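Lab manual, section 2.4: Encoding a predicted structure.

Procedure: take the sequence of the chain (158 residues), apply the prediction step described in section 2.3, and record the output as structure tokens. A sample record is shown.
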Amino acid sequence: MIERELSIKYLEYFSALELPSSDRKLLESAIRAADGAYAKYSSFRVGAAVRMSNGEVVIGSNQENAAYPSGLCAERTALFYASARYPDESVEAIAVVAVDDNGVLTELTYPCGACRQVMAEYEMRAGRDMRVIVGSAGVVQVFTGVKSLMPFIFDNLA
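Recorded output:
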């Protein structure tokens, strides 16, 4: 038997104001995107913004449904729309944030496993990592590549 250890590196900013301008603008787009969330059942509104390799920004928000599995997360909403709108472009970065009636939550809200796997697929298709920005009313974390959030992705593209 061998015991192994896994560690990840990421950047943590004390405020969105410390982010590079392009990342701060993407996070601001994600915050605005949360306004379009349909969260009738959970009141948990999430916004996502995707920056494409051509510089275009595409937004998405979570969309709930009374039949819970039929809803869709903000990240996948944004990624699927971005891919449909710009099929020949790759994803450079995605920003994710959750809000409530009082504004951006103080807790970080990370993409779920299904969203991480979809993000990984877009990375594999493009042959490069995307920047993942997870925001809150306090700290902001920035990861390079989805493997930083989900190291054992399903990687069976043949």
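Check your result against the sample. The chain is about 25% helix and 25% strand.
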